């Protein structure tokens, strides 16, 4: 008798390919920064939620950190307030901060929690203000050698992981809005979500930090070539930082900070590709750019 051909066999082979990565990441914390096009496209949002829930059911402990640049700009426009950026960071007046807080905690976070909870009672939303999860000080930037005031833009000074760890221990998926309370002045600060995700990944001792963006990864020679750097070390990344486009700087600085503070890998992946998170974690090829600490390195993953 000949063996019957099973049309679903390739699916089984795909699942088996994921086995070593499932084994490696089981029980590990993964911090995912949700942003870019994945945040505004309905299909990509739904696929993102599926990926995160899949990670949770596969035995990983995902934590989602989000900003909300497009949504904030849209709401400011409706209110007749202008969006101003300096060195890639939003200038945040007290009026703007009210909108930022409302949009992040009341709109973006609620929508994301709702998408995740279509798959079960998993997601819980909180902001960096809750339980003093993130404390901050006022952040300045430098342009042409001069210090520039960005208003209510903060820099993370401390992380208290207690509330997030309690949620993870209870099998939940924390969804964190990148807002923090001033450690000294009690003001509420807008925190760059890439920076917040990196600080949180380090504080949690995460296995990996994943940053969703609107490019394929870090390009080797942009704009002359669209070849993506598959893997590089912290030192190699540090040398490249001065040459990067302003939008990529906070993302790559976040990756650098993470791997230099105990996170095993940091990855920038294309959030425009459906299920890019699963492709990166559970396939041999991966997708995007991975940053690893200096020293003896393993292969992809």
From TrEMBL:
It holds the Pfam family AA_kinase. It is found in: Cytoplasm. Signal peptide: none annotated. It catalyses: N-acetyl-L-glutamate + ATP = N-acetyl-L-glutamyl 5-phosphate + ADP. The keyword Amino-acid biosynthesis applies. Its EC number is 2.7.2.8. Residues 28-270 form the Aspartate/glutamate/uridylate kinase domain. The record marks 33, 251 as: Transition state stabilizer. Substrate binds at residues 68-69, 90, 190. Pathway: Amino-acid biosynthesis; L-arginine biosynthesis; N(2)-acetyl-L-ornithine from L-glutamate: step 2/4. Keywords: Amino-acid biosynthesis, Arginine biosynthesis, ATP-binding, Cytoplasm, Kinase, Nucleotide-binding, Transferase. One of its GO terms (molecular function) is acetylglutamate kinase activity. Its main location: cytoplasm. InterPro entries: AceGlu_kinase-like_sf (IPR036393), AcgluKinase_fam (IPR004662), ArgB (IPR037528), Asp/Glu/Uridylate_kinase (IPR001048), Glu/AcGlu_kinase (IPR001057), NAGK-C (IPR041727). PANTHER family: N-ACETYLGLUTAMATE SYNTHASE (PTHR23342), N-ACETYLGLUTAMATE SYNTHASE, MITOCHONDRIAL (PTHR23342:SF0). Catalyzes the ATP-dependent phosphorylation of N-acetyl-L-glutamate. Belongs to the acetylglutamate kinase family. ArgB subfamily. This is Acetylglutamate kinase.
